[in-house]
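Convert to structure. Protein one:
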Amino acid sequence: MSLGYAEKLSFIEDVGNVGMAEFFDPSHVFQEKVERLAGMIQKSKHMVVFTGAGISTSCGIPDFRGPKGIWTLQRQGKALPEASLPFHRATPSTTHMALVEFEKAGILKFLISQNVDGLHLRSGIPREKLSELHGDSFMEQCPSCGAEYVRDFEIETIGLKETTRRCSRAGCGAKLRDTVLDWEDALPPKEMDPAAKHCKMADLVLCLGTSLQITPACNLPLKCLKGGGKIVIVNLQVMMGVVGMLNMRIPPFIRIDLFQIIITQALSLDKKYVNWTLRIASVHGKQAPLPFIKSVKVSFTESLSMKAAVLYDQPLHLKRRTARSTKHLDVFLSLQFSAGCKCTHADLKIPVDFEIPTDCLKEENDSIIEKLKERAVREPCCGQTAVVERRGILVPKSEVIVHAIITNIIEYGGSLEASSLSNGLLKRRNEGLIDSGICWKRTKGRKRTSRHRR
């Protein structure tokens, strides 16, 4: 979990059992459990998944109660773990993406998460099929109209406090609030009610990466028992073996970030020149950070002999002057990415013609982004971009171009170890699921406790 999030939480003396031992099942026992789980999933009509911090440890996010968890180390008087990459650049694990594939195949009906890392939403789970019980460190919500805003930076507060931004819906403008609960905050009905509803309907609830100690969240899986459902507590990365047995394929994770380029123009006082400002800004507001950009190198059409520059400090902007007679120039941007991005940089060419566009290019964002993802699957290369929106503003005279850019591509493929999975389930290739091999191996699992607390 984000170390920043742990530090923002109110102090509490008793955080429950910590430092729980890890253990390995013998290989034959592990294989038998994977086979049984695959069979249960295959027969399920309404599967619900309940997740905790354990599914994100392989993403470089420390958990709380594991052997190297934040609270475990604190209780032992040891230094907290070093984050392997910035929180906002964490990428989904194989388990996250396996759940995405289950949802696409119609197997996973609903997902309930205690995590605040936002990785389920980022991985591709539809918002309407997800309850984030404890909130999302990257989401703000309007208390007036209910609008949600997913950011590419971590929200600065927790505890449902007001942030520095306002709702952008027409006629609203209310101050936004963070969505992450502190210890004393009650679980929001908006998340809790659909979670309870789907657990009651479930014939199978999978509990992944959770010690089941936080109440009332930990009581949700129990609701399936009354209707004859089953609860399965799954150890880490078992999902890869299950996916292989069901002849499914874990999809790649493709992260797309958005930014906007704003070119503002004005005549000089003597009307001989055009003064203009180039801004590279977040789509979440001109003052919002662009956490995935470390610096930007700006250069121009060589024939104009304009001075190049490297922008390091945000907000990123550059002022230049051209003769009024200049009708066209090209601005070349080299975006240098921050740590956690898959490639180091991306290059863009921005044509400037000193005319405000009368048209407004604005396709469906989802359609453009989906096409960009499809291109990334065919040609797995970071730095690919697409224009999402292009519009003109008359006062001040400006052109705004919103770009989508691929900053991460993670592939989870491999070859299935068929010799270790030579059972009836492996041979069932006619269930309408994708027939693709996935490499998997036995990994550590956690013992579970029955202690429930908040």
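Protein two, convert as well:
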Amino acid sequence: MRAALAPGVRLLRALPRDSRYRGLTLVLTFFCYTSYHLSRKPISIVKSQLHPNCSALGPNPRNDSNNSAWCSWAPFDGDNYKELFGALDNAFLVAYAIGMFISGIFGERLPLRYYLSGGMVLSGLFTALFGLGYFWDIHVLWYFIIVQVCNGLVQTTGWPSVVACIGNWFGKGKRGLIMGIWNSHTSVGNILGSLIAGAWVSSTWGLSFVVPGIIIAVMGIICFFFLIEYPEDVGCSPPLHHMATDEEDARGVTCNEKDPGAVTSNEGPLSITGQTTDHTNSPKQPAEEPEAISFLGALRIPGVVEFSLCLLFAKLVSYTFLYWLPLYIVNVAHFSAKEAGDLSTLFDVGGILGGIFAGLISDYTGGRATTCCVMLVVAAPMLFLYNHVGQNGIGTSVVMLIICGALVNGPYALITTAVSADLGTHESLKGNAKALSTVTAIIDGTGSVGAALGPLLAGLISPTGWNNVFYMLIAADVLACVLLARVVVKEVRGWCGFMARKRGFKEF
């Protein structure tokens, strides 16, 4: 007797064809970039083990040595260990920032599937090589620096590729909410990376890198076999990137009247017709491949420069927490390395909530810049409070970490996802989708300059006291707001004009 068709398969068959492939792309790119962040996190967890508090481990077994750092891992056993940790972070982040500007150009001109999967396999290799330094008993700084530089370069393949792929599949309608939820891969990766690295940090810290390296390499192979770059490749309808005008809405113009290849819907990017023809065996062939946009051409898109500079300071704050929060908790709250790593994941839990909230609000209001600016303004006093009262108790610490994570990572998530996709499909491009990777790379590359500066400045400033580190982070938040002010004013004027038209210009 044959069993009934599995419920999951019945559910998949009930979904429209376009939705199935969009869902596959969304899930696959989610796990791909989760593995990218999963492989970046171990260094922040392992820092406290490379230079632990040796006195807490008992007497020095080396009776002929007066070294108080006898249990540390050379070359991080000196008094300058914080500066060396900052150099490690900076080696990765500077290479990442420089490589990002180049990566977007390659991403527009190479098959995304090859580019993304190849970068993931190489990233797995270099992540594992850092951990193999433990097993090979390597104690020279240049080895770890070179591995970090190489890893930073190959990791630039990730973000432009996944954002371009998602932008190819999803239109503007509910992009903020969809990409806000999707962008939780950043925080999920950080959380998983913390937990995986924490499992071996106190015993065999080399595995804290080797295991994440294997995971991202395996995900790269899966990406190679299953990623679909364009809806047309499997006979699906391309998304609607620009909303219809008021006049067109009044006439009931459908997407097909404006673009015969688009979806016949006014409901947003996920809506499709019920009569989609199955073209599985005969994918659509575009008539002519548009030319990729130039670097200067991407800079001329309205809003690219402002959001890029805003992200520079927003990402400075986010990455300072990413790389230094566990060590801060160890030094201030005096938790163990594993406990600090586990507690630091709450900042990323807040980041998930903040990214979803920012996307939802910006979709509802249409004000991406205003949403970012409000969250950054509120984040500044919250950072001050966390530094002064956040370690007064475990309950207070949990609440403050979640709130700070939401306010810090919310604007960062919104700019790197929905804003980048909006600008990469800006109406000034006249339908040319060959700008997504370049625009995303410019915005995230500029932000990565801040990501490189933040941990470096934290390493230089922390010896003078953690209060000064937080003052630096608060100043960065304020600067991010100021740089976005022109776009915020433009959005406010747009709302005022809309409300005036809605009232029928009664005041005139």
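Residues 92 and 149 are 5 Å apart (CA to CA). Residues 394-424 form the longest helix (31 residues).
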